[in-house]
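User: hey, got a sec? need tRNA-(Ms[2]io[6]A)-hydroxylase folded
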Amino acid sequence: MSDFLQPVRDFLACSTPQAWIDAAIQDIPLLLQDHANCEKKAAGTAVNLLFRYNDKLPLQEQLAQLAREELLHYEQVMAIMSKRGIGYLPISPARYAAGMRQHVRTYEPQHLVDILIVGAFVEARSCERFAAIAPFLDDELKKFYTFLLKSEARHFEYYLSLAAHYSPEPIEERVTFFRQVEADLIMRPDTELRFHSGIPV
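Assistant: Yep! Here you go:
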């Protein structure tokens, strides 16, 4: 698993703090609720891009598959919650996505490029957190989160390759910029526990 995850870990500037893992395993129902929200929002983001950029065939092909997989994951999380008697309750989103998206440029094609880079970081962090928390979970959830690793890693690669494809210039500078933004969000103290939240306080 370590070799498989290495590209994801190399992409991110920091690992998930142990303090987040310790807090997350103390509130599995909340974690599952937010995970379900994340999968649904990931599918929605992909579908929105499909409609907004319907003239871009590589994007259409890769994000259509991604959206299907995210909705399947949403159904799987919901099934686990139902099996465990965990009701689906509305919870506030983490500040993570908004914290990343506030830096997205507003003009094209740079807007699309930044959105795709942000998508790559969201998927990479999800993958890294699935791997980080899996050893501390019961057998069912450990198996589930381990199962999700490959698809999340593939989604990260989809977004990053699409960003490079549609950018008029090399994307390394923007990736470096968002890498620092992402790390700051992960390492900053956070009052709410969410799948992409920072260090619990």
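Quick note: The domain at 17-200 is CATH 1.20.1260.10 (Ferritin). Let me know if you need anything else on tRNA-(Ms[2]io[6]A)-hydroxylase.
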